[in-house]
Design a protein that fits this description.
The complex is a heterodimer of chains A (340) and B (488). Chain A is an all-alpha fold. Chain A contains 15 helices and no strands. Chain A is 72% helix and 0% strand.
């Protein structure tokens, strides 16, 4: 592979992974608060449709509304993302209401919302199928984009990809260095103790569920306005489930979740290349490759064997590796909080 | 800080957990609060630390009336509580735990917090590594962390709920030194316990609660007899047991060891004859549960030997214990005893022992349920779900589910939470079993029940059997002192 091709491939992996980054980090926020939002698949699908549709409709009125200003394409696309985030937050609020206030089973509520949102996206999106529409524009960063190798990979992207970088860094800092981030971890680990330390568990669970839902919605719109442009029936099929799996794969840690998303993106890219190299193997095999690999990694990193292997090491490296590799779910994930 | 509690009332349903409690605690003192399980100590302390709101009554801190809305609110007023099971976050690091809950800060400011943490640790000689993980700490170390944290957040009153349970002797010495130091720094310490020795050794004053009321206060020098009498009430007239001839040994333990989650019961030698009733006395969690579950085959025997009806079951499975004729009745009726959501007749089917046909004959089950309901006077129908029954009726239903002709019956708190009528009824049924030759072991916190129904009483303290008494010779004072860990 020539250097140019390699750089282009890496750049496209980063760009194409953005929707999953947003969705998986949104779900991370949900699950860290103790709420399993199983509606990711449906939320992505519906918000991909709504994001595209909103931008498409606004684009139609564009000349009238903005009188041909230069900002028109940005405003229409931003409006599409805003609509998608709103949709994501609303679905998440239904999950939150069902699980936090009504104390129903989180998995059941989330699953039903997935089914509902998928069908709703097909039903309401029928007028937008395969229409060419607005999309996020390329936005190389002056000066930085000219740096050899790194420039074209990191700084010759569009706004959505840059935002995905910022979100990863921002969320990692939020968890590791801020008091609200620490409290959020507390809510997911032991809500009774978090309450004892002055956290309003119910309010915070609502807030982070809605916020996470909005990010998942953003991920959906990133699909239809940034990766696979436009809208068609079941446009994002499967990616919501992948995002859910990546949260587990990444051990509920923003950096590792992001790594997981890029790993998945790289595997998909590799599958395309392998397909060309090995024509004898049935085509259907390659897109499936990431999944058994992910299962294998999950089995290794979630096993007691890892803990036992680490226990042979001296204290310093053991702690470091354990902090790096451990991937226990938040202890109160999926449970109801009842104040005494 | 000076604390005054005025006429505190708190009810939970029919239970009057705190019935008009007046109590004041001065600055720089260590007050002990004594009382048996269910005396209302925890409720009172949870009211003082903002977890519960009193139905009526008031709290004054340094003379000013306050309303403590939440635990965090109480801590803002300077009242911090250390729970028996520390309310911390096991998967996190020590420093994260220390930091979590600091108010009015967006950034964690870890290096400043670390410096404060190290200063507090060296002041009280705690050896805690801020980068370590919580799950590597012992209960005693988690307490130390919690004390440091509460002080860091400005606690001037420290409430400790049963802090000496589950910590080592060394850690206890260190804890007491810490508490004395805090008192010397003009902090107020409230030490809740049911261990006489700890309270006598540490506290400058003791308040005793019984059945939700403050029954008295004492100051050093304490007399154990005086404290025991306040804790357990006046000596009771012990009823006459119908005599029953003892038969062959049904349970034989030799050097038996049973491990529990927090406690290991070691080196138990015990023989219980057919028709004998053995009562297990002691504070909850002193090892009684391990013995009861162990002889029923629910906790594996670590060392030694165990025979039921003369057969060696040391290595046997629970199934073999059941086949040998043992049964266990758990204190938590809906958790371990029965299955919430299922009806009495469904329980009848589930509780059958031995080989059963694959297809349930519901007509037979209903008849059996009706017979059980009639025999045990249960207020319910075959189709009633068990969680809808009252506690007394659940206990009767559990008895109805026991197979006939048991060799050994092990029970936790057979009459806890029941009204007097139900309790008497349950014991009449149990005594019938005893007359048929069943050996009965039961644990209870009710000393009167112990002395009335037991032939022998084993007193447990901190995982050891401290004493074996003949119930006919034992007195409530003697039992109370032994339960509190006093040899004499």
């Amino acid at each position: 592979m020539s250097e140019v091709v390699l750089i282009a491939t890496l750049a496209s992996i980063l760009a194409d992974s953005a929707p999953i980054i947003f969705a998986a980090l949104g779900e991370t926020l949900n699950e860290r608060a103790g709420v399993v939002n199983l509606s990711v698949e449906g939320t992505m699908m519906l918000s991909a449709m709504i994001g595209f549709a909103a931008a498409f409709v606004l684009d139609g009125y564009g000349p009238m509304l903005f009188m041909g200003t230069d900002l028109a394409p940005y405003i229409t696309v931003a409006a599409g993302f805003a609509a998608a985030m709103l949709a994501g937050a609303l679905i998440a609020l239904v999950v939150a209401f069902g699980s936090i206030t009504l104390r129903r089973d989180q998995v059941a509520v989330g699953f039903i919302m997935t089914l509902l949102a998928i069908d709703l996206s097909s039903f309401a999106g029928v007028n937008f199928v395969r229409k060419p529409g607005p999309s996020v524009g390329h936005l190389p960063i002056p000066a930085l984009a000219d740096i050899p190798v790194v420039g074209p990979i990191l700084f010759s992207q569009d706004a959505v990809t840059y935002l995905s970088f910022l979100l990863i860094i921002g969320m990692a800092v939020f968890f590791a260095r801020t008091q609200p981030g620490l409290r959020l971890r507390g809510i997911g680990e032991r809500p009774q103790a978090a309450f004892a330390r002055g956290t309003n568990v119910v309010l915070m669970r609502y807030l982070y569920t809605a916020l996470g839902g909005a990010l998942i919605g953003f991920g959906g719109a990133a699909f239809s306005l940034h990766v696979k442009l436009g809208w068609s029936h079941r446009h994002t099929a499967g990616f919501g489930w992948v995002a859910l799996a990546i949260v587990i794969f990444g051990g509920w840690d923003p950096l590792k979740v992001a790594l997981g998303a890029y790993f998945f993106g790289a595997l998909r890219a590799a599958a395309t290349t392998l397909q060309a190299l090995l024509p004898a193997v049935p085509v259907q095999v390659f897109p499936l490759l990431p999944f058994p690999l992910m299962i294998l990694t999950l089995v290794i990193f979630n096993s007691d064997g890892l803990v036992r292997a680490l226990s042979l090491l001296p204290l310093g490296p053991r702690r470091f590796l354990f902090g790096l590799l451990r991937s226990n779910p938040p202890a109160a994930l999926g449970t109801h909080f009842r104040q005494e | 800080m000076k604390i005054e509690l005025r006429e505190i009332h708190k009810r939970f349903g029919a239970v009057h957990a705190n019935a008009g409690i007046n109590l004041s605690v001065g600055t720089g003192t260590i007050l002990g609060i004594l009382g048996e399980n269910g005396a209302g100590k925890s409720t009172l302390m949870k009211i003082l630390s903002g977890y519960f709101h009193p139905d009526s009554g008031g709290i004054l801190l340094d003379g000013a009336a306050v309303r403590l809305r939440t635990p965090a609110d109480a801590l803002r007023h300077g009242v911090g509580m250390l729970h028996q099971d520390p309310l911390d976050f096991p998967p996190m690091r020590v420093l994260d735990n220390f930091l979590l809950g600091r108010e009015h800060q967006f950034w964690q400011r870890r290096s400043a917090a670390r410096a404060d943490f190290d200063a507090l640790c060296s002041e009280f000689e705690f050896r805690l590594d801020p980068d370590g993980f919580m799950f590597d700490l012992t209960v005693g170390e988690r307490q130390q962390l919690e004390i440091a944290r509460l002080l860091w957040l400005g606690a001037r009153v420290l409430i400790l709920d049963e802090p000496t349970t589950g910590i080592s002797a060394n850690q206890k010495v260190k804890l007491f030194a810490t508490l004395r130091k805090l008192a010397a720094q003009n902090k107020t310490v409230i030490f809740v316990s049911h261990k006489l020795e700890d309270v006598e050794g540490l506290c400058g004053r003791v308040a005793v609660l019984r059945r939700g009321a403050l029954v008295g206060e004492a100051q050093p020098p304490y007399t154990t007899a005086g404290l025991v009498q306040m804790m357990f009430g006046q000596a009771l007239a012990v009823g006459v047991r119908p005599a029953a001839p003892l038969g062959a040994p049904q349970l034989e333990l030799r050097g038996a060891e049973f491990a529990g989650e927090h406690i290991v019961l070691r080196n138990v030698d015990l023989t219980v004859a057919a028709g004998e009733v053995v009562g297990l006395a002691g504070l909850e969690g002193s090892g009684q549960q391990q013995l009861l579950k162990g002889v029923a085959g629910l906790v594996a025997l670590g060392k030694g030997s165990l025979k039921i009806g003369g057969r060696d079951l040391s290595q046997a499975s629970y199934k073999e214990f059941l086949a040998a004729g043992t049964a266990f009745m758990a204190a938590d009726r809906l958790e371990e005893g029965m299955i919430a959501g299922l009806t009495i007749e469904e329980h009848m089917v589930l509780a059958r022992r031995g080989k059963q046909p694959a297809i349930v004959d519901w007509a037979v089950a209903r008849t059996a349920a009706q017979a059980g309901i009639a025999e045990f006077n249960i207020k319910g129908a075959p189709a009633s779900v068990v969680e809808g029954l009252s506690g007394g009726n659940q206990q009767r239903a559990l008895l109805a589910l026991l197979p006939p002709a048991l060799k050994l019956l092990a029970m936790e708190h057979p009459t806890r939470g029941l009204d007097v009528e139900s309790a008497i009824y349950i014991w009449s049924k149990l005594l019938m079993r005893r007359a048929e030759g069943t050996a009965i072991l039961f644990a209870t916190a009710d000393l009167e029940e112990l002395l009335r129904y037991s032939d022998r009483v084993l007193v447990f303290f901190a995982g050891e059997i401290m004493a074996v008494l003949r119930a006919a010779d034992a007195t409530v004072e003697q039992l109370g002192a032994l339960i509190g860990g006093k040899q004499k």
